[in-house]
Design a protein that fits this description.
With 790 residues, this protein is of the alpha/beta class. The protein has two domains: 299 residues, TIM Barrel (Alpha-Beta Barrel), CATH 3.20.20; 300 residues, TIM Barrel (Alpha-Beta Barrel). The chain is 41% helix and 11% strand. The protein is built from 27 helices and 21 strands. The strands form six sheets. The protein has an eight-stranded parallel beta sheet with strand order 1-12-11-10-9-8-6-2. α24 links the parallel β19 and β20. The chain starts with 6 loop residues before the first strand and ends with a helix.
């Protein structure tokens, strides 16, 4: 007999709009072309469209406050008044300029404005995408758990005073209600927020601030209840981490307070990104009205029986049944079978169906990908399709109609078609993997390589370089678009790219950079560019995903076995090297990053897919060496990102990740220098694995953390060379020579001078030449200052 009252929920949805309207609105505002009112109007329109879309697709628990102008963690920091004094806020409503100052750095005096007429401080309302020579840096940024989304790290201090500095959750709930849509507000939970926070006070544990923080949360809940909310979703993804007793006690204390803060308001504590493991008892003990769990249906294997056995009789269970982090269509009949125990135990009154996590991590709508052939498109489910899948599952449990049966059959057919399609298997790739030996992932000892490389390269102490890309100007983007649309011939496009590359080489020589890059003007994205030239990848046109703020990426989709049919970068690296006597780096994206920054096929182990990519890149590395390229950089910014959230699962991942990097890198001779690059991650817990990569030089992001990340390298006594970033490329600020010298002096406390390279934090693709030119010139001056003191 069909059942009723089954809730269908989303935990959050993409924020950027179907056509990346948020990106355009933000960048227009930052550039001073639009005011705050226009930006906020665009944001309101995007929220309204999102709520209506979810309602039309059958979602009954629609989230609000999942939207953000930059980052939801930053939103929470602002809401509770955790705004460091450096940003000049002294209470009251938080100006939008202060919010963006925390995200991007404050806007000071523009380069070339010695009079300083522009002014300084967070009150600047020009939009701020001009080059500046002073001001306040942005807050630290790092990866959100094991995703490629970046969040702004909260900063707190002993005695931190919290206050309700903003009412965004209430405002957006009322905004939806005015449209006739009843939503479930979302708040990042207090324990997760505190565990993500940092303090500049050594040894201080932010979790000790919980009692001071809870009254602010309680006030927000009371206001939401008064506004008419009946459910509030409290995100506590810390529940999938290795928690100590203090953190578990904090969770129990937090929800003992918050569950009774607003009588009549039901709290749903949401955990995601993995299984609860030994935190299961803690989660089940929380006195809340419901739990959302990423169960054995997606990433949290083996929990459903234990959860059903321990769930309080008055609590609801939200099942994360649809994968919120990958793009493959779900096998709906199989899911119904796996849901069956929960349905039998709880009925539908106490059951909710939802994605495993927020749909922030997938694109908006696969129906927009009309360029893909119908078979391939039938395999995909983006955010809109995932919501439809949830609705179909709900109807299957409550209706049992012929239409639902047809939907279930279509889903099963698509899944079977992908698993059996000949387009995903290449016997030659499998054979090559079988032939891999341990020697293919080894080089001679670093000390011997270093001497040979020094004889070949003749670099000074504190050698300078940049990470790879230079600004993708309007002219570069226009030329790429014109070429793609046939308005610019292949010959004309190549001529243009050669001119840009030549100009970049000459300018680097003029300012005195030691190891040059060709600028990557021919590249659209550090993963897409390679994936487009590899077998096994497919690409979307509209599959954008937010990385942070206005930065969106379009991850490729790995559908089949990966191989390299022809060289990918050798021509451009060779051309750039022909223009100069100085070494030019060959630039590649590493296999682990190519894996993590793609939507990966789920019919093979991720380790196997990574090794396939590594062998393809190995061919490119050896071809670059044969073309005379003496330095090859294989970037792995996603190495830490892919680390499992539980320590016990880390060694197995790091073993195959390190092996994959070495498989890609170790085909060259000892005189060829291998670099790698990593950014915006915590490295302390993987420092031994970074050493095991055995790259000759590693460049890392350190400017926002003030070289804090180098503590790990000092404790580990990293033997190879390191380029600690001295220029925060995610801010329009131009750091001074003195700032860079100070950072390098700090680095020298943990590293010897002959270990240190001088470089920015990351590639410069997203910055403007007006910022890059003075910043890199200052960087060269800083290196020369250090050389004079060595």
């Amino acid at each position: 007999m069909p059942m009723s009252n089954l809730a269908i929920a989303t935990l959050g949805v993409p924020r950027i709009g179907l056509r990346r309207e948020l990106k355009s609105a933000l960048e227009s505002h930052w550039a001073g072309r639009t005011d705050a009112a226009e930006l906020l109007a665009t944001a309101a329109r995007l929220r309204a469209e999102s709520w209506r879309r979810q309602q039309a697709l059958g979602i009954t628990h629609i989230p609000s406050n999942d939207f953000s102008l930059y980052d939801h963690v930053l939103d929470l920091s602002v809401m509770v008044g955790a705004i460091p004094a450096v940003y000049g806020w002294h209470g009251g409503p938080v100006p939008l300029s202060t919010y963006f100052a925390m995200a991007r750095g404050t806007q000071g005096r523009p380069a070339g404005d010695p009079a300083g007429d522009h002014g300084t401080g967070p009150g600047c309302d020009c939009g701020g995408d001009h080059a500046v020579t002073d001001g306040v840096p942005a807050q630290e940024m790092t990866k959100w758990f094991d995703t490629n989304y970046h969040f702004m790290v909260p900063e707190v201090e002993p005695g931190q005073r919290f206050q309700l500095a903003g009412t965004k959750p209430v405002d957006e709930f009322l905004e939806a209600r005015a449209l006739g849509i009843h939503t479930r507000p979302v708040l990042l939970g207090p324990v997760t927020w505190l565990l993500l926070a940092k303090s500049r006070q050594p040894g201080f544990r932010p979790l000790t601030l919980l009692e001071d923080l809870l009254p602010v949360y309680a006030e927000v809940l009371r206001r939401l209840r008064a506004a008419g909310a009946d459910w509030v979703q409290m995100d506590e993804p810390c529940l999938v981490l290795d928690l100590d007793g203090a953190a578990r006690t904090a969770l129990r204390r937090a929800y003992a307070v918050l569950a009774s803060a607003a009588p009549g308001l039901k709290l749903l504590v949401a955990s995601y990104f993995g299984p609860l493991g030994d935190n299961l008892d803690t989660a089940l003990s929380l006195p809340v009205a419901g739990l959302h769990l990423d169960l054995d249906l997606v990433r949290g294997a083996g929990q459903l029986d234990a959860v059903l056995a321990g769930l309080r009789p008055d609590a609801c269970l939200s099942l994360g049944v649809i994968d919120g982090r990958n793009v493959w269509r779900a096998d709906l009949p199989a899911l119904l079978d796996r849901i069956a125990p929960a349905v039998r135990r709880l009925g539908t009154e106490r059951l909710m169906l939802a994605p495993s996590c927020s749909l922030l991590h997938v694109p908006m709508d696969s129906d927009a990908e009309v360029q893909l052939d119908p078979e391939l498109r039938s395999w995909l489910a983006f955010a809109a399709q995932k919501m439809t899948e949830l609705a179909v599952l709900g109807r299957a449990l409550t209706e049992g109609s012929d239409a639902v049966a047809a939907d279930l059959a279509a889903a099963a057919k698509a899944v079977h078609g992908r698993r059996t399609s000949p387009r995903i298997h290449n016997p030659a790739v499998a054979a090559r993997l079988e032939a891999v030996t341990a020697d293919m992932a080894r080089r001679i000892p670093y000390a011997e390589r270093r001497w040979l490389q020094a004889q070949r390269l003749h670099l000074p102490v504190f050698p300078t370089t940049s990470i790879g890309s230079f600004p993708q100007t309007d002219a570069v983007r226009k030329a790429r678009a014109d070429h793609a649309k046939g308005r610019l011939s292949a010959v004309e496009y190549e001529t243009f790219l050669r001119q840009e590359t030549g100009a970049a080489i000459r300018w680097q020589e003029e300012i005195g950079i030691d190891v040059l890059v060709h600028g990557e003007f021919e590249r659209n994205d550090m993963v897409q560019y390679f994936g487009e030239q590899l077998e096994g990848y497919v690409f979307t046109r509209h599959g954008w995903v937010q990385s942070y703020g206005s930065r969106c990426v379009r991850p490729p989709i790995i559908v089949g076995d990966v191989s390299r049919p022809r060289p990918m970068t050798v021509g451009w690296a060779g051309y750039a090297q022909s223009l100069t006597e100085r070494p030019v780096k060959g630039m590649l994206t590493g296999p682990v990053t190519m894996l993590h920054w793609s939507f990966v096929r789920d019919d093979l182990p991720r380790a196997t897919v990574c090794r396939q990519i590594a062998l393809a890149l190995r061919d490119e590395v050896t071809d670059l060496e044969a073309a005379g390229i003496a330095i090859i950089q294989i970037d792995e910014p996603a190495l830490r990102e892919g680390l499992p959230l539980r320590r016990a699962d880390g060694p197995a991942y790091l073993n195959w990740a390190v092996e994959s990097f070495r498989l890609a890198a170790c085909g060259v001779g000892p005189a060829t220098q291998i670099h790698t690059h990593m950014c915006y991650s915590e490295f302390n817990d993987i420092i031994a694995a970074i050493g095991a990569l055995d790259a000759d030089v590693i460049s890392i992001e350190t400017s926002r953390s003030k070289m804090e990340l180098l503590d790990a390298f000092a404790d580990y006594r990293y033997p190879n060379e390191i380029g600690p970033g001295v220029y925060d490329i995610h801010s329009p600020r131009v750091p001074t020579v003195a700032e860079m010298v100070d950072l390098l002096v700090r680095a020298g406390k943990n590293l010897s001078p002959d270990q240190i390279w001088v470089n920015p934090d990351c590639g410069l693709k997203t910055r403007r030449w007006e910022e890059v030119r003075p910043a890199l010139a200052n960087m060269v001056s800083a290196a020369r200052t250090l050389r004079s003191q060595a």
